[in-house]
Amino acid sequence: MKTFLPVFWLFVVPAVIHAEDLDSRRQTVVGTPGLVAFWDFVKREPDGEHRFLAHVPSGSSTEYPLDVANYVKDYWGQGRAASYADFPLLGRGPFGQAIRIRKETDPNFRPFLFVPRSRLHDTPLDIKGDDRSVSVVVWAIRESGNHALAGIWHEGTDLHQKETAGIRKVERGQRQYALFAGLNKPGSACGHVSENGASSFLNKYALHKCNSLGQSPEVPADSSLDVLDRSWQCFAMTFDHQRDELTGWLDGQSGDRWLENPSRGGLLLSAYNAYMQGHWHRTPGIQPGEDPSFPKDQFYNPPEDDPLSVNVLNETADQRTEQREYRFTKVNVTLEANADGTFTETARDLVALRLNPWWYPHGLYTPGDDGSGGPFTIGRVIHSARSVGFTGWIGGVAVFDRALSAEELATLASLSMQ
User: Where in the chain is the domain with CATH 2.60.120.200?
Assistant: First the structure.
């Protein structure tokens, strides 16, 4: 008896304390104002399919049970059906459970968990339109990849590329808001929003996105439990419609991130062009490089009232070149001297775009009905490329109908500490 009693207490007492701690963590999320839905992968239907349910505010009409599907089968008619068995459970995590998004080797198998559009349209989860803010928070361990974690982000299956050859179900993009594991900056917290569900700046992709300064490391999903316990991170995005700012947060920190020389190429060359087209449009006459047919609603011209700093790059008696830094842009401006001693701007070039926060002056895409909107998905999104995307563990997903503060995000980030 003396031999086994200490061992018994060693295992039982921490389990009770840990359960209480998990409930406290859960209540911290649920008690954060503006909560719409919080999946901890512990709460499940008591009967039937035992699907994962969300914690929701009192009086909500739904707990957003999560279905499962293989979108390649649904859209291409290829591959097998998915089931809950395709999402292994860890049995631990920030809130007591976690699901694994695996590195699927079958190109015809891309499973995800989702709330169908028919069950979310016009509910609190369907955050859309003008004057709406949103936050998405995901507690995860990133094994690899830079793609979607959670959100309403049906990228569309209408892009003309090799992967869409023979596709059976073609749909345009139905993007609203989502949190990604980096995209152009792998491992960062990348918020993505869209005003039209489709593309930006005449590019084929939606490009309104931000990237936290911090970037998560890659941790093998089959690491030892002690390594996994130390590897949880809190990815988050906030869109504040009052400030027109989209911000990525990793472990409660946003950080300033800039893209220097956006004219050099890459996807954000389209944003550079949208900035220059808007500038040239406001300049009298047709300017070299100006496209009069460029749609005005796709200009990208963040506010440039009072510069935060001005650095004179070169200066002569007749001309001066300044680099002006504003909140969301850095521009080189050439000024010519007038006879009366004043200066007139004669040229302007965008030399840097701020990626965090990102300026976004629009509302969130508003689908006309439940047939023209996307589902809320976890782990992956529907998209033409059919890439593997993010892999790793997801231990919690929360959506709020407002932009959380830095203090609130720091509190939520602390919940990932084991």
Answer: 33-254+359-414
